[in-house]
Design a protein that fits this description.
Layout: E1 14-18, E2 21-30, H1 32-36, H2 42-51, H3 54-58, E3 67-72, E4 82-90, E5 103-107, E6 110-116, H4 122-136, E7 149-153, E8 165-170
Antiparallel strand pairs: 1-6, 2-4, 2-5, 3-4, 3-7, 6-8, 7-8
Length: 171
């Protein structure tokens, strides 16, 4: 993957403390290596989320427009398997228990380093920004907790020319 020189020295645009919140959606377990080699599951999750209209199935239970790509249940930090859920924020996980194939996850309260992708194709810019974050996290002062990281896609995002916020849980 070609990396833009402008994101090599990436820095968060802000540090933000967020309370716990609940997501509902579809998930799969994958690894960074599988995703980089083209054997990953994230692309199929996006396809399923939109073709099955997961957000619409949750209807009135959604807290806000937009959707999330949440990374959690990390094993071996970013070197091993983790779970990725494509989801929407919901009021309460009890309201989605009867929807087949829909899981919930409560993202714990945390302090986040917030990064914003460059504007462009989100299919290209999100992985490029993650690659820069992996370099950024190597600095000793940038200590991730791996308790739940997420991408936020605004409700009106243009997949061909959009920007995504990436929240990294920090100590």
């Amino acid at each position: 993957m070609k990396q833009d020189k402008s994101i090599i020295n990436i820095k968060p645009v802000r540090i933000e403390k967020r309370p716990a919140f609940t997501l509902a959606g579809v998930s799969a377990v994958t690894t960074n290596k599988a995703e980089q080699l083209g054997n990953g599951k994230i692309g199929a999750l996006f396809e399923r989320f939109f073709t099955e209209n997961i957000g619409e199935q949750l209807g009135v239970n959604i807290c806000e427009a937009g959707y999330y790509g949440c990374y959690f249940h990390y094993q071996q930090e970013d070197k091993g398997p983790y779970e990725m859920m494509l989801s929407v924020q919901v009021v309460d996980d009890a309201v989605v228990q009867n929807l087949e194939g829909i899981q919930t996850y409560t993202v714990p309260e945390a302090t986040y380093a917030v990064f914003v992708t460059e504007k462009g194709s989100i299919a290209e810019k999100v992985p490029q920004t993650w690659a820069a974050i992996w370099e950024w996290q190597k600095l000793p002062e940038n200590r991730r907790t791996f308790t739940g990281d997420f991408e936020y896609y605004a409700g009106d995002i243009d997949p061909a020319n959009g920007q995504v916020e990436i929240y990294i849980a920090m100590e």
